[in-house]
Amino acid sequence: MGTSKGYLPPTGHLWSETKRAVSSMNRNGYSSNSIGKAVSSFSKAGSGTRGHGNVAIGTSGAKVLNFADLVRSIGLNNALNQVGLAHLVGQDPQSIFEGLVDYFSEGTDSLQQSIADQAMQEYMTEMMGSVRSEEELNDAFTKIEPDMFIQDFLTKYVQVSFFTNFAEKINALCKDIGQALKMQERIKEFIRLEITDNYKRDSLKNMDWKGRAGRDYIEKKCDEVWGIFERWGDSE
After folding, report:
1. How far apart are CA 228 and CA 33, in angstroms?
2. Closest Cα to residue 218, out of 111, 106, 122, 143?
3. Which of 58, 73, 119, 127 has an alpha carbon 20 to 30 Å from 110's alpha carbon atom?
4. How far, in Å, CA of 71 to CA of 78, rounded?
5. CA separation for the pair 233, 222 (Å, rounded)
6. Span 158-213, pLDDT tens digits
7. Exposure class string for 186-219: b at 16+ Cβ within 10 A, else e
């Protein structure tokens, strides 16, 4: 995934430092240390412009968790009716999946919304896995655990954000597409492990995902996840 055409990246010394850190990853063989410095620098450079992204992530994530609660309590088809997706009832799992991705997404009015939507698309694609029936789709939503979902969704968000800005640069620095894909997977794994090791889970049993509190909670966790990488850089 590359930087969106027409997108003007941030400017200023922090962004310049980030671009140098990305180049440094290549010179240092994409070591964990060099990846950490690049992602940390990226997090700091974008700290003043993430508001729209946090809001999109909060709203989109809360929709998923509210829908999962509905599926657990009244079943998939009734949940679809409840959220205004009655036209999906009785359709094949792929059509339902596509309709739900569209329902969970926040639109593309801004780059940050587009990134949030891409993160949702990737999360949902992985969640679907080998789902081939309505019953399996029902079970997939029933098994969603809020803490794990938020952690995984935010991991996708950080990964997509980074590669939206730097995939083209990484591709250009690598000797061929095979190496570029391998290095991108290494960066994704670094991001995943850092979040896994540092994410703080809470008791979410009584959270109202349909209300403002649920959206606010996910926005707050989004800030905390970016903070993981900012603190990583400070510790080096």
Report:
1. 15
2. 106
3. 127
4. 8
5. 18
6. 999 999 999 999 999 999 999 999 999 999 999 999 999 999 988 787 899 998 99
7. bbbebbbebbeeebeeeeeeebebbeeebbebbb
> Which pair of tokens denotes residue 190?
């670094």
Q: How far is CA 30 from CA 18, 33, 165, 177, 184, in A?
A: 15, 8, 17, 15, 9
State how far the Cα of 160 lies from the Cα of 154, in Å rounded to an integer. Answer: 10
Q: How many CB atoms lie within 10 A of CB 132?
A: 12
Burial of residue 5 (CB within 10 Å: 0-12, 13-18, 19+) is exposed
Give residues with Cβ within 8 angstroms of 163, minimum separation 6.
1, 170, 184, 187
Both tokens of 112, joined, read 């940050």
Q: Token digits for 5?
A: 């055409």
Q: Could you tell me the pTM of the whole model? A: 0.91
